[in-house]
Amino acid sequence: MVSSIQTNMDNLQDPGASPNAMVVDAPEEHVVEPNGTESEDVAIINPPDQMETDTLLASDYEAMKAHVLQPLAEEPRILDDQVHTWTIENWRACPKKEHGPIFYAGGYPWRILLFPFGNNVLDQCSIYLEHGFEPNNIPEDWSCCVQFALVLWNKNHPHIFFQHSAHHRFTKEESDWGFTRFLETRKMFNTVWENFDRPLIENDCANISAYVRVVEDETGVLWHNFNNYDSKKETGYVGLKNQGATCYLNSLLQSLYFTNAFRKAIYQIPTQHDESMTNSAYTLQRLFYQLQTSNTAVGTAELTKSFGWETRHIFEQQDVQELSRKLMERMEEKMKGTELEKVLPEMFSGKIKTYISCINVPYESSRIEDFWDVQLNVSGNENLLDSFQDYIQVEKLDGDNQYFAGDEYKLQDANKGVIFQSFPDVLHLQLKRFEYDIQRDAMMKINDRYEFPEEFDASPYLDKDADRSEPWEYQLHGVLVHSGDLNAGHYYAFLKPNKEGWWYKYDDDKVTKATKREVLEENFGGPYKLPNGQVRPLAGKKGPLMRPNSAYMLVYIRKSRLDKILCPVTDADTPPHLQKRFEEEYAAREARRKEREEQHLYLGVKAITEATFQQHGATDLTNFDATPDQDPAAPRFYRVLRSASMKDVVAQIAADLEQDPKRIRLWIMVNRQNKTIRPDQPVMDLRPTAEDTYNRAAAHRDQALRVWVEVAEEVNAEGNAVWPTYGGLANGVVVKNDLILLFLKWFDPEAQALKGIGHVYVGKERKVEELIPIIMKKMNWEKLESDEKIQMWEEIKPNMIEALKGKQTLKAAELQDGDIICFQRMKDRKSKLSLGDKSERHSADDAKSLDRAEDAREYYDFLLNKRTVAFRPHPQKCDAEAYPPFEMVLNGKISYDRLSEKVGEKLGVEPTHLRFYTVNASSNGPRTAVKRQNQTLHNILVPAGYGQLNMNQRNDALFFEVLDMSLAELDTKKSIRLTLLSEGITKEEQFDILVPKNGQVSDLIECLIKKAKLPTEGEAGPMRIYEISNHKFFRELTREYAVISINDYATVIAERIPPEDAEITDPSHFISVFQYHVEPSRTHGIPFRFLLKEGEKFVDTKKRLEKRIGLKGKSFEKIKFAVVKRSHFSRPQYLTDDDILWDLAEQDDCLGMDHPDRTRFLRNGAGDLFLKG
Description:
- The protein is an alpha+beta fold.
- The protein is 20% helix and 31% strand.
- The chain has 31 helices and 53 strands.
- Strands 13, 18, 21, 22, 23, 24, 25 and 26 form an 8-stranded mixed beta sheet that branches.
- The longest helix is centred in the middle third of the chain and has 22 residues, at 576-597.
- The protein is extended.
- This is ubiquitinyl hydrolase 1.
- Its EC number is 3.4.19.12.
């Protein structure tokens, strides 16, 4: 059993000590890594062949070496072979662990490690090979790749032996490797060994021979476990992180990155004025710069986000060729109008001529097109050159297939084909490894062996008139590989970054050196070959074992342009703004890292100041969740050392406010039972630390210390503050007098705004009306008019605003430190000093009153019910350019009609012509239309019983639709979702048609023609409407059919009636056609009615079907047609070209089209590949 012993070398010096960690293996296992997982790459066991071992002697070291050290699949160069034999005397008397003598192989010391009675396993002998370095003398970063075998044999009878073989990469960390279950002890002693007449261990003596073959580690990663592997350190390059299934993207990006001229061109795209993460050119520049400068693998999330991809897109593998083309198109768009406009076409684009040339007359028809890659057939070709020859092969048009060469030459024999006019400097070759298998009716991967050269001459495939002033010789630069099958696979790339030097393998985040054998032979595909050249058989099955990995894309560079394409890219080539941005981001990251590391040393302080309170226009004194950079009313934030004294904290805040620290006093903010946050008492002792003060603050629910900053209005002769309350006596005692700290807010009805004014100290026994002079002074109001009064309320909590009585004392009104009084200047014909007991309330039913608060209590009610609603145009039913999205702050109590008025006023449309839709919280798409009834905005956004049923609805957004008619008129219409077929059945367009409820199908057709802007029936022919159900034809609707009777759950189809159908009125001449895959029950697509013709062979029927369906070429040829009986249990009767459908089809039979549902990929997955940014 192969296993590793993880030990420290000190223990190994003591024969009686046990290793620190041993791996216990299950008896049936044969290959085990240190972590206990199976891996063919770590060790290969070669069981002895009984026929060979009968004549083999363990003492014949050369013969035994050939037997136990079989050729390796990797075929590394052999550096040294050594054989060492250790004789064990008195086996049963050996200690638990025993070391053999040191011997040398490959210039390094080795020894055998023996556990005579097992390494933490019962009834087993354990034998290992380990290096023999002294613990402190192991070279740093030492490694040695060794193929070895351990042979246990009878020293007197060498034909009796037992052996195991393995290979391993020995390192400082993995110092030993071998076999935990080398052999069961019961088989070693006192038992006749297999077919011989004596035991393996005889007279308690035996020999152990170690056959050690040191092989060259050419790439530095032979048999590497890649634990703690550093790509940058080992190769100088870094990989790309795989987001989910983006290995195909990573392989292409690495290929383009090492096309240095392309990288330089990308750097030159002007992005300094559009450093947006939605700009794919900018994110590609960022990616390339990081690949150039980073020490670790780089992420591609920024790039894929700029493509507009969502999470589901990064978990779906796409076609690399299509991705390459779309990426090139997008970069070409970014370069338009700049000096780079022709760079990409010159680098990647060649020209190809498609021609038909007459043989006997001087007539040729041809066109020349650009190409960005060449798709070459793998199937039927042995190598790349064969594929090129196949690509340009000439087809002869003769006999019945003659070419019409115009009126002058008529029908002529001709040659048809393609020929290359020129090849690009960088030639991308797509190998068609995936093809449609008509027998399996599915796409399949072609695993055939297909060779490609390191260099080739492309001139044989050029037109005779092509420019040959330079050789058309190409050198291989990149091999993009797919490993796996069609449904599951992995992509990686082999690239040669420089003209000369190593190849490297780029496998997502890992980069390793690669040999030419890995690049070429191992990616030709086909069957595995043994080192002796024979094909490796597939265990238990007929046929060879096929390689899962093969090249699917090749990148060649024209040899004469190698220096141009692989030009060096230096820091000077990278955009300065890009370098500056990364320097800024690095500095910010370092600052955040340092802040995180030191976070435990600091405490946050959130401070309300007079200035922030005056900016606050809502309830309480501030919003502690707001940030100062976004909200001027947010508390100021200070980062202080936890160990700092409160004196230091006061000094820091005073310096920020440009005040004398002696004039600053901090009040601790506390959470009251009514869920408000108010000042409780001042911090008078400044000796405790900030952390102690934070811990003593009662009922704090914030990670920061929350304070209100008071600035003294008076100072004494020494410059110390004179505080109205909680003043300190000479003996240090703090005294609380009867003054109360109150905060004042002013409601301005004209501005419809609430504003903090400041704070005042008032005695408890003072009356409420005595606050009026203080307010007048604070507001700089000289006097009140005869018909004015000042009305005051206490803000107890957001939903509890109580009017104050003028004659009541503050104590009777139960006012205390930190309470808030809101006041308002109002008209009053009775008395200017009336403090208004309860003011008249406006009815909430009056929609207009909800737009404007007449007094502070109404405004507080508005704040309580205020909702910020995002309005978006309906994606399918509204023009986003004409009506862009917007936000409005609205009272949640307004009615549907008032909501329509407000939104209509914003959009400039009639409120009666608006319809609203709720928003799906998961998809952010429209959910359901909002019914116009007696409900408020709050009820619309948060419906009654808001629970599991409505949790998928957003409560802060609505979609809107601008209608062509009023909602009242809309109630007289029926909405019908209709699918228009405009090109056979291949093109579907969805329309929502509004038809009068008392209308007929003829009215529906007229409305469709108007909405879809179609030619009239008089111009382009009559139309018909039919219903389908479960992808089968249900019924055709007559023109007189009432639209009110159309089934809401059926799919309604509209199409032009084909001219040949219009002439036939007998329904028995038509057959229903539907689509399915394999089983008639697996229906899909759009069904239709098709005209039968008496006596017509199916070969001719198919021509009419091809025209009727709208599919052409191979797409149509893949369809199998069958007559399907009405019975669910009958098998389809597949048709041949000589069948006559008229004779075979009976009444109620259908014609089935058997082919895969190509649209399922669009429904279930990401659909077509797209790049947005």
